[in-house]
Design goal:
By secondary structure, the protein is an all-alpha fold. It is built from four helices and no strands. The longest helix is centred in the C-terminal third of the chain and has 19 residues. The protein is elongated and about 75 Å long. The mean pLDDT is 86.
Length: 104
């Protein structure tokens, strides 16, 4: 058996807990999953998944995101029409009641 070494990394606790639950559901613990990642990285001679940026024409810039936000805002405004705040709240409450009825 080859020499074992300790590998440490700092990660967000919530992320670690959430990912650990996934691996437990798959029947393994986090250290086993990390070892699998390392073995697969060795086999691939790189990351065992795609790690590329989207083509330049598909990237969202700050200007693109502002433009898209303004378009969505216009669509949302036209959908709401002349609804008052009270009308909107009433519609939300009715949707929640309907959702609860479906769950039962």
């Amino acid at each position: 058996m080859s020499e074992q070494v300790l590998v440490q990394a700092r990660v967000d606790k919530k992320l670690k807990d959430e990912v650990s639950e996934i691996y437990i559901a798959l029947g393994m613990d986090l250290p086993t999953a990390i070892r699998m990642f390392l073995v697969k990285s060795k086999e691939e001679r790189g990351l065992p998944f795609s790690a590329t940026l989207p083509p330049l024409e598909e990237r969202i810039t700050r200007e693109n995101s502002i433009e898209l936000f303004e378009k969505m805002q216009a669509v949302a405004s036209s959908y709401m029409g002349d609804m008052s705040d009270e009308d909107i709240e009433k519609e939300i409450k009715e949707a929640r009641k309907e959702s609860k009825r479906r769950q039962v």
